[in-house]
Specification:
By secondary structure, the chain is α/β, with parallel strands linked by helices. It is built from 11 helices and 8 strands. Strands 1-2-4-3-5-6-7-8 form an 8-stranded mixed sheet, sandwiched between helices. Helix 5 packs across helix 6. The longest helix has 18 residues. The radius of gyration is 18 Å and the shape is globular. The termini are far apart.
Length: 297
């Protein structure tokens, strides 16, 4: 605890108090059942409209309070949780904020989780949700973004590659919020919060299963040319900071338009932990990226 207090100055001023209390990691094989039980207690918004996409997979749909033009822009949102925990309902408030602040339809995916459902099942679940969203009569299929946070960001990046390779849908933007992209990241650091190298090894091994890592992790994709434009944001004290920057540079070198944002002194999931000015600004940057990419006035 004393070491954590000494470390406080390295965190953003808005996050210093929280940094002392938040654990380095939550998820291990031992804690997984407990965390899953707690996550199921999250009460979602009554405003969400739930639709089944394929058997076992659903989406929670949010529309802006002020009706937008039809057909209009949309965001496929994918929740985080290291590929092993979490529910779509945990992001209901944020999804409604996206819908209201940007003026779009948001579909949040309830995909199946590893290790019970390793790759490619979670990614295919999310791609099926993209197909469902693009087929809606109130959605302009040419103005759809795919986005997510943490493992959801990794899945969003994978969905973008599926869309590119299959040629059925062309997302206008990848909105990647501290995305989990590279199974090789394993650098220990006492400044990491919520998700560290220990959790990362467990999450990736659960998700990869018996597949070849090169086929699973977005960062291992050999050719990233032709992928949709990307907005990538991450904290400077996040485990994923380096892998996200490397991926952003690879996209840029391949001719993909990229905006890469680093929040000084921010740890993993900082914007979801507690209300803060730095968290609100981070969200506002995401909304601005969506408006520009989806041509929202």
């Amino acid at each position: 605890m004393f070491a954590r207090i000494r470390d406080r100055k390295q965190f953003h001023p808005d996050l210093r108090s929280a940094s002392v209390l938040i654990p380095g990691h939550l998820i291990t094989k031992r804690t997984l059942p407990v965390v899953r039980t707690l996550s199921r207690l999250v009460r979602g918004s009554s405003r969400a409209q739930v639709h089944e996409v394929v058997p076992g997979v659903s989406v929670r749909v949010f529309r802006p309070r002020v009706p937008s033009a039809v057909p209009g822009p949309a965001l496929l949102w994918i929740h985080g949780g290291g590929y092993v925990i979490g529910t779509a309902a945990q992001d209901d408030k944020m999804c409604q904020r996206f819908a209201d602040d940007v003026g779009l339809t948001v579909a949040s995916v309830e995909y199946r989780l590893a290790p019970e459902f390793p790759f490619p099942t979670p990614a295919e679940d999310c791609y099926a949700a993209l197909q469902w969203l693009a087929a809606r009569g109130d959605v302009d299929a040419a103005r759809i973004a795919v986005g997510g946070a943490s493992a959801g960001g990794g899945l969003a990046a994978t969905v973008a590659t599926f869309a590119h390779d299959r040629g059925e849908i062309t997302p206008a933007l990848q909105l990647l919020v501290y995305p989990m992209l590279d199974d090789r990241t394993a650098t220990p650091n006492t400044l990491h919060r919520l998700w560290d190298a220990t959790s990362n090894r467990f999450g990736w091994s659960s998700y990869i299963g018996s597949a070849a890592p090169a086929d699973v992790a977005p960062a291992r994709r050999a050719d990233v040319s032709g992928l949709p434009p990307a907005w990538i944001g991450v904290g400077s004290l996040d485990l994923f900071r380096e892998e996200d920057e490397v991926y952003a540079k690879r996209l840029e070198e391949a001719g993909v338009a990229v905006t890469f944002t680093v929040i000084p002194g921010a740890f993993h999931g900082f914007d979801a932990i507690m209300p803060s000015d730095v968290g609100r600004d981070f969200f506002d940057q995401q909304c601005a990226a969506l408006r520009e990419a989806l041509k929202v006035q």
